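Why do we bother with a discrete structure alphabet at all? Because it lets us treat a fold like text: something you can write down, compare, and reason about line by line. To make this less abstract, here is a complete entry for Outer envelope pore protein 24A, chloroplastic. Read it the way you would read a sentence in a foreign language you are learning: slowly, and without expecting to understand everything at once.
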Amino acid sequence: KKNVKSVICKKKKHLNSQHLFLFIIYILSARELPVSHEMKASLKARCDIDKSAAGATLAVNAGDVKLRASMTDATIVNGPSLNGLALAVEKPGFFIIDYNVPKKDFRFQFMNTIRVSDKPLNLTYIHSRGDKRTILDGTLVFDSANKVSANHVIGSRNCKLKYIYVHQEVTTFEQIYDVAKNSWDFGVSRKVYGEDVLRASYQTSNKALGLEWSRNSKLNGSFRISSSLNLAEELKMPKLSAESTWDFDM
């Protein structure tokens, strides 16, 4: 009898984990919202020196809620499977619920904005059920050029403090202090030719230098080419990667 009860309990947990996401979608879709029937798809390809990967995302607007499904090449290669498949429900600016299908794992993210001395403070709460990790993130915006943020993993020393300064809406300077590593990271980026951004970064903890060129265009698609170099290694060989994204309205 104990074995039978344990099997039933396991099945109940399994069913709850699988169907909770579908139940959330059902509740949201049951609301009388003006459905826009807007559907968007995106394709992403990434190529490194030693490997390449691809992915696709399909998003549907259901009133003020977005339903999203994403997959990687692991979903299709070697026959259709659940590997790399993820589902999400999102209400922009309020919450995001992600469900990793093969891992049967949920990730909850809630956003809110409060005002501190008439300055907006953007708060984000993230909880991953699988690894039982909770993250708190806050960003205080002083003006269009200055803002500070803090990111902390509850129950650990992982905490990062960041200050961002934007000069004339063109050049951005970043300073990040990692409390756990007691080290600083620096970054600077600049907009060029309207849609292109050049960025350089340096991590003092591992002496890693990074360079990046990216473009975000609605007409010609988006891409990112990055290179990283570890200055602490005797044989200094840069690691290169390229990523492209194409968006489609359906």
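What the structure line is telling us, in plain words: Residues 43 and 56 are 5 Å apart (CA to CA). Residues 1-15 have pLDDT under 50 and may be disordered.
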